[in-house]
Amino acid sequence: MFEDDKSFFDNYVTLFVNNWKFYCAEFQKEINVISKPFSDATTKAYPKLLDLYGDIVKNDTSDFDVSGTYIIGDFVFMLFYEVKKGTEDHEVAFFMFDKKGIPLAMLVDSAKYKVHQNGWISNCFEVPRTQRNIEEFLYSKIVGVIMFRMFKTFAEVETKFLKPKSRVKDIACKYVNDTDLKLNYLDSKWFTNLVKSEGFTVRGHFRLQPKKVNGEWTRELIWISDFQKSGYTAPARITF
Fold first, then answer.
1. Using an 8 Å Cβ cutoff, are 188 and 221 in contact?
2. Pair 85, 99: CB distance under 8 Å
3. Of the candidates 79, 72, 63, which has an alpha carbon nearest to the alpha carbon of residue 28?
4. What is the mean pLDDT of residues 134-150?
5. What is the C-alpha separation between 111 and 119, in angstroms, rounded?
6. Which of 120, 19, 122, 36 is closest to 71 using CA atoms?
7. Which of the residue ranges 127-141, 142-156, 189-203 would you say has the lowest mean pLDDT?
8. What does pLDDT average to over the chain?
9. DSSP assignment of 178-226, as one string?
10. What angle do CA 218, 139, 6 make, to 5 degrees?
11. How far apart are CA 190 and CA 41, in angstroms?
12. What distance in Å separates the CA atoms of residue 99 and residue 84, rounded to the nearest whole number?
């Protein structure tokens, strides 16, 4: 625990723990380890994903929910986020830790349970100590996790399932899960093309492609690879 956060936990540790326990089952529904290529790809797709998110939530086209844990670099994000179509009901429970399990942030806001608790972030973050700035920081992290979930849902993603205490061999490397948890390792290796001729190159970009599933129209996030207006382009699965 950071010494600067001691006063918070002296007064609110019970509240923090009780809230975390209440949503713990939601956080355990899926545990995702985000690779750097997956993170980079999500960043590249961010504008399209945000557009799709706005279409779903702001235009009230369907229910939307995210439940799970996302391990990104040195941080662990736990999120339960739910918005119901046709209602004002929403629910957000967000917790952030470092890899040693030290609490770094919390936000709980539920119309369903009529609970709204002021968000908290650790003093290790250089954020002005106003509630508005704190909540802006928290929601930026929440939206980031939502974007990872949407990329996993709507794009072509390579997922390696790592069972507890298991090792998975790949062509170039080995993945080891030393924990007692089932982990999903999310990767993305399909953005680099090898161009073998002269010509005008059109840069790769994302597109939301209409797609019919079970008689219902939806949209799939697809990657349009770099291509030449003339000449020959050979696609290759190379991690950028």
1. no
2. no
3. 79
4. 95
5. 15
6. 36
7. 189-203
8. 82
9. -SSS-EEEEE-----EEE-S-SPEEPPEEEEEEEEETTEEEEEEEEE--
10. 145
11. 9
12. 32
Contacts by 232-235 with C-beta closer than 8 Å and gap 24+?
232/196, 232/197, 233/193, 233/194, 233/195, 233/196, 233/197, 234/193, 234/194, 234/195, 234/196, 235/193, 235/194
Q: Per-residue confidence at 235, pLDDT binned at 50, 70, 90?
A: low
Element (H, E) at 77: strand 75-83
CA 185, CA 176: separation in Å to the nearest integer? Answer: 10
Which tokens hold the place of 26? 């939601």
29 C-beta neighbours (distance < 10 Å), count: 11
Contact between residue 107 and residue 135 where contact means Cβ atoms under 8 Å apart: yes
